[in-house]
Design brief:
The complex is a heterodimer.
Chain A (H helix, E strand, L loop, with lengths): L1 H12 L8 H6 L4 H30 L9 H35 L8 H20 L39 H29 L12 H33 L12 H35 L6 H14 L15 H13 L1 H15 L8 H23 L2 H7 L3 H31 L1 E2 L2 H27 L16 H31 L1 E2 L34 H6 L5 H4 L3
Helix pairs in contact in A: 3-4, 3-5, 3-16, 4-5, 4-6, 4-8, 4-14, 5-6, 6-7, 7-8, 7-9, 8-9, 8-11, 8-12, 8-14, 9-11, 11-12, 12-14, 12-15, 14-15, 15-16
Chain B lengths: L1 H17 L6 H17 L4 H20 L3
The chains are: A mainly alpha, B mainly alpha.
Amino acid sequence: MATRTITEGVSIARRRRLSETYIGDWLMTTDHKKLGIMYMVTGFFFFLVGGVDALLIRTQLAQPNGKVLSPDVYNQIFTMHAITMIFLFVMPMLTGLGNYIVPLMIGARDMAFPRLNAFGYWVVLFGGLFLTSSFLFGAAPNVGWFAYAPLTELSGAGTTSCGNAVLCTPGPNMDFWALGILMLGISSIAGSINFVVTILKLRAPGMTINRMPLFTWMTLITAFLLLFSLPSVSMASILILLDRHLGTHFYVAGFGGDPLLWQHLFWSFGHPEVYILILPAFGIISEVLPVFSRKPIFGYTFIAWSGVAIGFLSFTVWAHHMFAVGLPLVAQAFFATSTTLIAIPTAVKIFNWLGTTWGGKLSFKPPMLFALGFIAMFLIGGLNGAALAIVPFDYQVTDTYFVVAHLHYVLFGGTVFGIFAGIFYWFPKITGKLLNERLAQVQFWLMLIGVNLTFFPMHILGLLGMPRRIYTYPDKLGWNEMNLIATIGAFTLGVAILVFIWNFVVTLRSGEAAGTDPWDAFTLEWDTESPPKPYNFLEIPTVRSRRPFYDKKNPETADWKSMTH
Amino acid sequence: MQISKNHRASNEATEQSIKPKQSYWPIVLAASLTLTLIGVILMSHPIIFWIGVAFVIVSFVGWGIERR
């Protein structure tokens, strides 16, 4: 008895280790689920930051001769809007969803390299703060997200200063860009290696490549795309830093360098990057549609391998961003053809998604609404992208708002709708609660109206010749009304996001309990508690078909009894 | 009863053994890397850069020798 009293006394006196505190637990965690949540929360925070940037841009452009921002601040805002949305919102958000869901989907207990996973997250957070802190120095990147050299050189060609028609970037703005992109690249490489090894080596027994869920497929392809495309932009960043600080002239024509080298290096990363941003969303849609159509996915093999085809082709199209630089005719023909070709596997996916819904018992729950919205909006973005593959048309609209319309239909109408489909679908898994359906519908319709109000007029503005990135524009060019409509649309999107935040907060405080399987789903992540235990599965499941959880719930009609895949 | 107790103990042991282990080296290495890059931006104070580099090396070593 005396011994026991002493033992208790000692344990009370002992100070808790950092890892035993609530905050310490999150700081030191290597659990893929916690890291997934951290990625998503960080991504959403930067979504709000990038969204405020967007609203500032649209406020500046709402009327002719706008003076809401100064020209230099405007340059910083539109550059940071793009960098934030691409590198600090979409990529972390999709990585977060992948981190949380992929190991559960394939029946693994964690990612292959948990510490590397944690490192990847912290680099994203610190890299994001590093980039955003540039505003505090008044030196945020101001050169557009693709930062063309030699405008990004420290001084003009053959001179020691800028000015007098010599365009360059004397402040640290470009250094923030290059170092920030290097940091985020390190994170992406760490994450990609982890995804590749996890998916190839840690799948549950029986889960062959051809039984993997399509979200896992697309995450795997995305990871390979990152591994093969990041080295070129990393090298481009290192070369520009060498030019700026160590006196080399890789991009300065006057010293034997080549400004187009930057464009080739950047876009051989930049175009695969577009698919890096959209392929995981394809995966999300391919998970959501079958569940809410109560059918297996139509054309699984075609969807999976068209993703692979898109991955390969994405490395052959980069110079379609450079038609206007005066490429040789044969190069123009090649890149126009390859760009048109990539539309084929993309169309295959859309055909298969529509085939999945055909004849299904459709249920228009929030994930399904966003998935259908994704298909419609992405189709517009894909079609106007195919138009841009036509060289003479591209000459006419290059660097105009038509291009801005195209990329936003793909990245907002496509990726962001896909992300929200994923959030509404997996939120019950992550939190154990169901987001409010009515508020989700309000958000969906506001987003659908907002995205079209904002970005459709930009097609017309582009055809009318409004260049992208201009600070302001004079009256009587016929651009006023379209710009005002786009600004109203942007604020509509802002309201939609506020509705989501309200829904999120209310649900976390007093949301309806979801149970473990609220959607009657098909894949393994739902065969765990919601939220799952730290170790995911005490006993690793055995897989016999593409819908293992469906098989478990319906042994009489299990897929493996009738299908041979 | 004895069997049930043993079964529970065995499950708990398994849970403990497969729980992800915590580590502070990932956040330390990421912070060190950030400090190094801030040092590159503030080259007028190169000490920041070198402190960052030192921390990066320490983090690599610490990560490498951490018992898992």
